[in-house]
Amino acid sequence: MLRTFLAAVLLAAATLAGADEPATTSRATDLKDQGNADARTLASLPEGTPVKVTQRAGGWAKVEANGKSGWVRVFHLRFATTAETTSSGGVGGMFSSLGSALGGSRQTSQKTTIATVGIRGLSPEDLKNASPDAEALKRVQSYRADRNAAERFAKDGRLVDTRVDYAEGRR
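The chain above was modelled as a monomer; its predicted structure follows.
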């Protein structure tokens, strides 16, 4: 019962937090009229421009910035969420205050900025509407190197074959 209640509270908080999420541009980027690289550019946003994210769709975010509304690449945005941690490694706030009030040891807290972005990938509609680009394929294929070319490159650069084992517990 308690677990269900906590899950509902976290879901509601996440939904509200994403409604008008503040962010800043992490680099100069174009504000587009649609969430598409080929869409018309409405404005250029310099690095560090504050924006309000109103919607997300794949790798694009609909934002409001400088009195205009449009779409930018989500990877060109910096989202900041602050989490408070205590010196004992736990989450601070209400519980550390309660411990102090009951005569427990005083814990110092530290605020950490966390930023995450996730993209699910291509939708079935994206795949259905995809069209091959023969010139782009030729361009990409021109970058590949055969085994002999790669070995020559390594020899010319005096690269050495090195084996690196995985650290324990990291497989």
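Confidence is low (pLDDT under 50) at residues 1-18, 87-102.
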